[in-house]
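Sorry, I am new here, but would you mind making up a protein's amino acid sequence and the tokens describing how it folds?
***
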Amino acid sequence: MTWLIILSLIVVGIVFLLLEILVVPGATIVGLVGIGMVIGGIVMSFNTYGTEIGVITLAGSLVFSLISIGLALKSNTWKKAMLGSELDGKVNVFEPDRVVAGDEGVTITRLNPMGKALIKEDYYEVQSKDNLISENTPIVVVKVDGNKIIVKPKS
């Protein structure tokens, strides 16, 4: 009967470890409980049946856990649980001379300090140079640095 308890502790512990690795993110209580159960089963085996059976239990647990993790990672079961969508949004992709310093526009959203603005009939993600700028405020482009557009309120 004791061998059944030892086997149950090890198997359930390995299942908890698989859940920790594949489902539950981070080092959480699930992983700690799994490690505790596996260690508890191995220690119980050493205490109950002696060193020889304890070492066999330790080796068997190690092999069983490695095979379980390998099969779980290799199976396509986890692909069904994964998020399959991709993000295809882009940040301010425009031609180099499309927006230049001195261009004028109007804010569409509040710049806090980032927001959207309409410049030359196109919408861009812009950044306020100094303060917050409310929506529908006329603006002037101060600087274009790569894909970052810095603006200030029109005086």
Q: What stands out?
A: The chain has four helices and five strands. Helices lie at 2-22, 29-49, 51-74, 77-81.
